[in-house]
């Protein structure tokens, strides 16, 4: 192809060319932004309306509670006027009044064990027998010496009486009578020494027959027949613990001595209740016996001892128990169930019902005994709410139910 033809194909006339695109203007950009903003606003408004419709549906479906809604169904309790005890709680140890650890006083083989393990024995009951034959032989010898010396004394006394008669007739000198009287005194001393030896040997024989020194319960057998026991040994043959009566030793804070001392000076019999380890079951009831004579400076407490009859044997030596010491009894106090008291931090309150309306009333709890609490701030006869605290508010309408409210509806409130 020639150069001329190339030029004709490559050159296009102005009338055949497309017009160039106009440059974007600032007005079109502004319109575009406004369109997007409007769209976003419309979308946000639609989303808000959908959420509001959902909340209205949920609220209309849920039951209304408290003021302005349906009345709250609950159970009630009436404040009573009565007496309540002031107690001091502590942990104590069951301690026998007497505990006897029996050891041998003589040396010899054990020939018999007279008790059964765990047996309740009386004072003087036989426990253990040690071979008494060597000691009986020694006792027999001492008795023979005593009889011989008694005969010598009798002979000396008879001679003295003869010398007195002879001296009365001036048949003998006074020196002979005086010498014989001293011989009688010497023989009397020998007899007395023999009597002491006989008593000692008799005691050794008695030591071979070990008997219960106190009444109580015997522990496990610690020695068997055939064992040789030593007089100077420390081997324990048996242990007896007195269980009737029995005592409990517990501690009292020194801050409470001001409550106890006046009652003890008045010789008041203060009741002490013993509970099991969980402090749920009462085991026994006794009375306070005495307080220790000094305060333990390391703990700031003083020891106290209470005595219990323990006729049924429910208290076991060295058992740990919970004790409740009745210090005083409040007369004419206002009492309500502890479950009716609600707490908001350090403040306590109850809902007093008047004309089927709950009114929040501040109270001050005091002494607690079991499920009952002494309070101030309300009067005896006031009716208080005792359930459905999760729904209650001040001035809420209520319906009193005679049936128990389920546990889920009786949860305590932590705020008014």
Strand and helix map with partners:
Elements: H1 3-10, H2 26-61, E1 72-74, E2 76-78, E3 80-96, E4 99-103, E5 108-113, E6 120-121, E7 126-130, H3 133-168, H4 174-207, E8 209-211, E9 216-218, E10 228-229, E11 236-241, E12 246-253, H5 257-265, E13 271-275, E14 282-291, E15 301-308, E16 320-337, E17 342-344, E18 347-354, E19 357-369, E20 372-376, E21 383-385, E22 396-400
Parallel strand pairs: 1-22
Antiparallel strand pairs: 2-21, 3-12, 3-16, 4-11, 5-7, 5-10, 6-9, 7-8, 9-11, 12-15, 13-14, 13-16, 14-15, 16-20, 17-18, 18-19, 19-20, 19-22
Which keywords apply here?
416 residues, alpha+beta, 6-stranded antiparallel beta barrel, 4-stranded antiparallel beta sheet, 5 helices, 22 strands, disordered N terminus, disordered C terminus
What does it look like?
With 416 residues, the protein is of the alpha+beta class. 30% of the residues lie in helices and 34% in strands. It has five helices and 22 strands. The chain has a six-stranded antiparallel beta barrel. Strands 4-11-9-6 form a four-stranded antiparallel β-sheet, with no helix packed on it. Strands 8-7-5-10 form a four-stranded antiparallel β-sheet.
Helix content estimate: 25-40%
Q: What's the main sheet like?
A: 6 strands, antiparallel, barrel
Separation of termini? 104 Å
Estimate the global geometry from the Cα principal axes.
Answer: elongated
Query: What radius of gyration results from the CA coordinates?
Result: 51 Å
Structural class: alpha+beta
Order of helices and strands, N to C?
HHEEEEEEEHHEEEEEHEEEEEEEEEE
**Overall average residue pLDDT:** 84
Unreliable residue runs: 1-12, 16-21, 58-65, 408-416
Relative strand content: 25-35%
Across the major sheet, the strand order is 3-12-15-14-13-16
Quantity of strands, as a count: 22
């Amino acid at each position: 192809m020639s150069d001329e033809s190339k030029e004709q194909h490559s050159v296009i006339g102005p009338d055949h060319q497309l017009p160039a695109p106009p440059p974007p203007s600032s007005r079109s950009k502004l319109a575009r932004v406004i369109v997007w903003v409007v769209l976003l606003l419309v979308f946000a408004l639609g989303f808000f309306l959908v959420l509001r419709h959902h909340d209205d549906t949920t609220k209309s479906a849920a039951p209304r509670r408290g003021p302005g809604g349906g009345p709250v169904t609950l159970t009630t309790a009436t404040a009573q006027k009565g007496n309540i005890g002031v107690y001091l709680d502590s942990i104590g140890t069951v301690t026998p009044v007497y505990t006897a650890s029996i050891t041998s006083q003589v040396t010899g083989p054990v020939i018999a064990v007279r008790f059964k393990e765990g047996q309740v024995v009386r004072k003087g009951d036989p426990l253990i027998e040690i071979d008494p034959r060597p000691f009986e032989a020694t006792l027999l010898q001492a008795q023979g010496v005593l009889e011989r010396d008694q005969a010598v004394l009798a002979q000396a006394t008879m001679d003295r009486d003869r010398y007195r008669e002879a001296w009365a007739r001036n048949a003998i000198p006074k020196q002979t009578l005086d010498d014989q009287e001293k011989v009688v005194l010497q023989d009397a001393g020998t007899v007395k020494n023999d009597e002491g030896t006989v008593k000692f040997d008799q005691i050794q024989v008695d030591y071979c027959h070990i008997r219960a020194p106190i009444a109580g319960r015997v522990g496990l057998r610690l020695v068997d027949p055939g064992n040789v026991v030593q007089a100077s040994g420390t081997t324990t043959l048996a242990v007896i613990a007195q269980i009737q009566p029995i005592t409990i030793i517990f501690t009292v804070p020194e801050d409470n001595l001001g409550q106890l001392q006046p009652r003890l000076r008045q010789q008041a019999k203060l009741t002490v209740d013993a509970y099991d380890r969980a402090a749920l079951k009462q085991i026994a009831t006794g009375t306070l016996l005495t307080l220790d004579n000094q305060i333990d400076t390391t703990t700031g407490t003083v020891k106290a001892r209470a005595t219990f009859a323990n006729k049924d044997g429910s208290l076991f030596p060295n058992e740990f128990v919970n004790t409740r010491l009745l210090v005083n009894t409040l007369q004419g106090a206002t009492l309500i169930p502890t479950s009716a008291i609600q707490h908001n931090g350090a403040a306590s309150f109850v809902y007093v019902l008047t004309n089927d309306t709950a009114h929040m009333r501040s109270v001050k709890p005091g002494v607690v005994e079991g499920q009952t609490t002494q309070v101030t701030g309300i009067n005896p006869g006031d009716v208080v709410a005792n359930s459905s605290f999760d729904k209650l508010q001040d001035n809420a309408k209520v319906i009193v139910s005679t049936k128990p409210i389920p546990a889920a509806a009786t949860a305590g409130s932590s705020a008014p």
